[in-house]
Write a structure and sequence with these properties.
The protein is α+β, with helices and mostly antiparallel strands and 92 residues long. Helices cover 35% and strands 23% of the residues. It has a four-stranded antiparallel sheet, covered by helices on one side. The longest helix has 13 residues.
């Protein structure tokens, strides 16, 4: 089983609040493989759970570690990295 992880700086100007957290959790769920997210060196939570993601209290500029395990782990992390680094608050 392939496991991968990477550290990403959050780009949404208001952090991972409802809308970006929902987009991220939905993409993690659709990946079909286990994905976790942790703030800095904190405890990793299920990235497909919007409540768990919001509960981390991730703000703009925070560093998070996302991990995926299984086939296509790198591709899944590419997609999730793009979601995290994009400012979803630009058009709001």
């Amino acid at each position: 089983m392939t496991a991968s992880s990477r550290t990403v700086r959050v780009g949404s100007s208001h952090g991972l609040h409802a809308r970006p957290a929902k987009l991220f959790a939905q993409a993690a769920k659709e990946a079909g493989i286990p994905v976790t997210i942790a703030k800095d060196s904190g405890k990793a939570v299920n990235a497909a759970s919007i409540l768990s993601v919001i509960a981390l209290g991730i703000d703009f500029g925070d560093h998070v570690v996302i991990s995926a395990e299984g086939e296509n782990a790198e591709a899944v992390l590419d997609t999730l990295t793009e979601l995290l680094t994009t400012d979803h608050d630009e058009d709001a």
